[in-house]
Write a structure and sequence with these properties.
Length: 111
């Protein structure tokens, strides 16, 4: 999954988990992307979202912490982390690193 698509998925996941899905667990199908999302919110406030696309066979997992930090596994099984306060992202499998937010965001590495 490329970084741009990953960030879109993360933003949508965060939005859905905090506004559109107020329950502690559930599922949603996005007909535009063909993705199924299953989420569960823990008593500590973490929301775990598992996604799957039956057309492509890809799956991924994202855990969103109450402070906005995120971690998960991408569709290739690579573990990654995102820090909301700094905007830093690191993919442990590809080596991709991003720092900053908005137009000042810079990314390097990756394969």
């Amino acid at each position: 999954m490329n970084l741009k698509l990953l960030l879109i998925v993360l933003a949508a996941t965060f939005f859905w988990s905090t506004t559109a899905f107020p329950d502690s667990f559930g599922a949603r199908y996005d007909s535009q992307s063909g993705n199924w999302y299953h989420w569960q919110r823990s008593p500590s406030g973490e929301t775990t979202v598992k996604g799957h696309n039956f057309s492509t066979g890809s799956s991924w997992t994202t855990t969103i912490e109450p402070d906005g930090d995120m971690r998960g596994r991408d569709s290739r099984g690579n573990y990654w982390r995102y820090n909301e306060s700094t905007g830093s992202y690191f993919n442990f499998g590809t080596g991709e690193t991003c720092i900053g937010k908005g137009f000042s965001r810079t990314c390097s590495g990756g394969r």
